[in-house]
Amino acid sequence: MKAEIILEEEYKATGTKLFLASIEHNHIQHLIKLAQDLSLIDLLGWNTVFEINEVEKFIAAISSYALPYCRKSQPLILGVYLETEDFPIGYVVLKGFNMDLLAAEVGVVILDPRYRKKGYGRLVLRRIVRYAFDELQLKKIGSSILLSNKTSINMCKKVGFVVTEILYKSWQMPKGDLVDMVLMELTR
């Protein structure tokens, strides 16, 4: 990993160090390869399959926001790296910054199936929340999650997010069906 390290955290359960860092072009291509897993579409609610050279389209997809108070802004996209891996295992994005309300939306995705459901997503979420509140001086962080994605909802709850609204039949899936979405927030 040669990217500039922005944030570091140790996973106490294993002693493994986790890094959130600026992400290089070829590392985004690595994430695109990992995102070819079709099961991710049902978890995330958007088509995760991109050609390896569609870096800009991938960035646009992970940067889109759903919360009504979010605004068009430059997203902060960081790769999620483990000290034992040369390439990212996932990403975290702060997007839709509204500097009038000091708010943004967060998205955390562990794309590498070897590291899913092992606590890394929660660790990443805790670290980016701390960064958003302490360094960026945000007052509110929101997340929009498909109601069927219980793992992500529970992860957010464990970090302190609360459900603020359930939007029934509000999110159009890639095949056209409408599904329910949960809006969650954490305020400082």
Can you walk through the features of this model?
The protein has 188 residues and is of the alpha+beta class. It has a single domain, classed as Aminopeptidase (3-Layer(aba) Sandwich). The chain is 27% helix and 35% strand. The protein is built from 5 helices and 8 strands; from the N terminus they run E-E-H-H-H-E-E-E-H-E-H-E-E. It has an 8-stranded mixed beta sheet with strand order 1-2-3-4-5-6-8-7, sandwiched between helices. Strand 7 and strand 8 form a beta hairpin. Helix 4 crosses helix 5.
CATH class: Alpha Beta
Output the CATH topology: Aminopeptidase
Strands, count: 8
The CATH superfamily turns out to be: Gcn5-related N-acetyltransferase (GNAT)
The average pLDDT score comes to 90
How many domains in all? 1
List low-pLDDT spans: none
Which class best fits the helix and strand makeup?
A: alpha+beta
Distance between the termini: 33 Å
What CATH architecture do you see?
3-Layer(aba) Sandwich
Q: What portion of residues belong to β-strands?
A: 25-35%
Q: So what's the overall shape?
A: globular
Strand order of the largest sheet: 1-2-3-4-5-6-8-7
Topology order in helix (H) and strand (E) letters: EEHHHEEEHEHEE
**Distinct helical segment count:** 5
- For this structure, the quaternary state is single chain
